[in-house]
């Protein structure tokens, strides 16, 4: 009872914090059909500056971090990303009305990470005065790439198996995988390589890696402290506004896809967040990963990719219907993930006793 | 004599202040046909950030304001907005060469409020260290909506009367107003509702209301103080530059409309400003409205809408010629209003003795 | 040996400084075909803000500067700009595979000044705590306009001479220059005037002159200190990123032009920088021009115009192939000039003994 009322209090107070308030404000504007619009170039600039900031701050921290303290949450992030996709494969993809390709793409997107949701989590921890490892930004790509790779490879292998089966039934000779012969599909290294390259070239991961590189190998501290760090919250408030707006407008598209996507879009962030929270707590036990770090691991797992994921999936799985996975992720998954951030703070505090 | 030399001194000093200096700089650039251009997306971003700031700061202040202190200037603002349109109906619309629709649209635009002119007034008061009520931003929509509603309803009713008359003369049956029958045109509630909805959905009023809502119901203070407040003057300087540029380029269009528009565009801001100053002085007597508040009431009345008004009028009065009302407002009204701000400061100080 | 190791140390340390690190980061992103892009409107805004800042800061300084201290580096800057074009005329234009028009346009572009390179130089001196004259920004247009005028006039006169010769060989009557008659080509005042007007109207020079005017005749100090000055480094980092990106992508175009352009693009910045350094040292002897001022004179001379020059040349010399001069300047000249800034710092310190 005491825990519940405390949780409710925390949730209500968080809704008034700038990050969530701007997200909800954007949804309200879209709901009343406001003509306020933030043009695409501004969106691209804001995202780039936020990711450079997250990357640089991670890079600067990695310089001083111990390898073990870094590797343990990194490996756990990979496990979280892969698990989320496997769970999606076993639940969403088996449901009625869900095409296999659409389901795998959606599971991949929900396993991948949203940079803006991560940034929102960081801003809310800063607001609350909760410390977290500076290198968290460097863990993001591990979970992100692991999930996208798993989803795309499983979807491609399933498609080839189907194609092989229909070839056999037509009396043809089955050729599974690009270099595969009998026994089962071989690992398609060319596919893995092309997905990796495509992910690295995506605007979000490029900006993050650039920031990481600058933080690691250069000394960007002066411009970081005079520009990227002070503008962080303000730019994030603009981004939240746009994401709320976009989320509301995407909801309309949900009508055209199976109803199960609605349930997945709303429930998956909570279940995935719990997986991330669990991984974070394991890291806390093993290497003393901080309370803030545990929260951000949950936030990353709960989030679904909104910038880099969609184009990567569109390129790798052209048969999947973007209305299904993008609308579910942007219209439901992202606001659900952002709005659930206070929950992870409350739960992490309950478990670790911050 | 002493008053005049003091006034001249104030005016000259104000021309050097950033706000006016950037406006004049923009006009000079346009006059020398510079190819410097600030792209549309940047303009939209700057306007949105300024209006969010004005709205948030008003919302934060309204939280602590007394209802009477707020309601009195609000009602006086409505009176000012309506009066300005009625004066335009009795002067501009009756002049030779002015089509009734064009004249009413122009009067509506000059009664509505320019957010950028208001922001310029605030920055100039800040510069001069003159205090004003924080909730002023919340009064803006009262004057703005009152003026637009009055102008559009009067123009529509006049058009229906004309149509009815020509129907009668052709032997048809007169149907006045949507639900009206004989006696005179009934109030068209559907029209009023559609104008209100359209105004609220306009980018400027949306952004202002969002800011107000955030200030009232959320706690955006941290991002307000770290981002919106410090960037305010800089963003305003960019906007002033663009408005000076735009004003000069619009002047060319004036050649295509009746000469009386030139007189109206230059004189109306002064006369309307005096009306606003009067309303402000009444509020000063009644509720102790501050000297800065009186100045800003005059600034709002003197200004003509440049962001939200034009599209609203274009939608509601498609028969009116945009060259007439937009060129008069943006080319003459807005620079005249901004350049006259120091005059309202000087007059308010003379009356109240700040 | 000691000097060399010190030079290498300075160079390596400078590569890690934000300015160069972001430039190199942009090149790496382009090299790995990242899809990160900074839209055109953002680029225009960033350039405008940087040039307004450089101009305002120069204007504010000019208010207090002595005429002689200003005129001497100004005249030396003109000499440097003209010399660079004459050297280009005597070397690049005479080489095999170089069309006369293309060579003159390239020489003009390398004589003109890059605002972003100058800004990078200023930021690096600020970083190193090396003082320089505030009015340097006011010297920029002298070198820039002198070089562009010289190149365009020489190219136009050569073209007319060629046309006259072919006219003569066809039995026609030679008419040289617009008002010229026999003896040699007369000075074409109309051409000079049109180049001057075109340069002044170019976005870069417009923004710089506006800033200068604001600094000289207005009091923009409050907005300068609260907005333009603090954002300078951050905006510069964004610009450097874009310039590195652009430089790498332009390199591909170099394949289509003669190989000598590669040598010119890499060597010219070094030789021109030495000329600028020499001029700066003369000013140092004559008027006590500061060490930082000497460095910036070298930086201006080493740089090649990237914003205002190309469109001016395209308008004035339509026969020249933009692939040749823009690719050489943007792809090689600009990165070479920016990367050589630490060299001018080291050399100026060696000569003056800062």
UniProtKB/TrEMBL annotation, chains A, B, C:
Pfam families: Sbt_1 (PF05982)
InterPro entries to which the protein is assigned, alphabetical: Sbt_1
Transmembrane segments: 20-38, 45-62, 68-92, 104-124, 130-155, 260-280, 324-347
Keywords, alphabetical: Membrane, Transmembrane, Transmembrane helix
This protein's name: Sodium-dependent bicarbonate transport family permease
């Amino acid at each position: 009872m005491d825990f519940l009322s405390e949780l409710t209090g925390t949730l209500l107070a968080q809704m008034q914090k700038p990050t969530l308030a701007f997200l909800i404000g954007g949804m309200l504007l879209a709901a009343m059909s406001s003509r306020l619009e933030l043009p695409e170039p501004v969106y691209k600039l804001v995202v780039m500056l936020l990711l450079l900031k997250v990357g640089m701050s991670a890079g600067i921290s990695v310089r001083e971090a111990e390898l073990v303290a870094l590797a343990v949450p990194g490996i756990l992030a990979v496990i979280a990303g892969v698990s989320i996709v496997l769970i999606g494969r076993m639940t969403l993809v088996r449901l009625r009305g869900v095409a296999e390709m659409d389901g795998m793409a959606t599971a991949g997107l929900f396993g991948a990470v949203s940079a803006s949701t991560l940034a929102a989590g960081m801003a809310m921890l800063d607001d609350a005065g909760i410390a977290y490892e500076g290198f968290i930004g460097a863990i993001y790509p591990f979970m992100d790439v692991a999930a996208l790779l798993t989803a795309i490879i499983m979807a491609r292998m399933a498609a080839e198996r189907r194609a092989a089966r229909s070839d056999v039934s037509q009396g043809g000779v089955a050729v599974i995988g690009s270099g595969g012969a009998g026994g089962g599909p071989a690992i398609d290294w060319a596919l893995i390589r092309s997905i990796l390259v495509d992910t690295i070239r995506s605007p979000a991961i490029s900006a993050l890696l650039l920031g990481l590189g600058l933080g690691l190998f250069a000394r960007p501290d002066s411009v970081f402290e005079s520009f990227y760090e002070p503008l962080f919250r303000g730019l994030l408030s603009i981004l939240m506004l746009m994401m709320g707006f976009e989320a509301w407008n995407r909801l309309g598209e949900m009508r055209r896809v199976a109803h199960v996507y609605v349930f997945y879009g709303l429930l998956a962030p909570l279940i995935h967040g719990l997986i991330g929270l669990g991984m974070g707590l394991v890291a806390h036990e093993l290497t003393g990963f901080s309370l803030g770090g545990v929260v951000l691991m949950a936030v990353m797992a709960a989030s679904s990719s909104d910038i880099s994921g969609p184009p990567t999936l569109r390129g790798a799985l052209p048969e999947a219907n973007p209305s299904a996975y993008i609308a579910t992720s942007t219209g439901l998954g992202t606001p659900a993930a952002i709005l659930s951030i206070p929950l992870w703070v409350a739960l992490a505090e309950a478990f670790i006793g911050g």
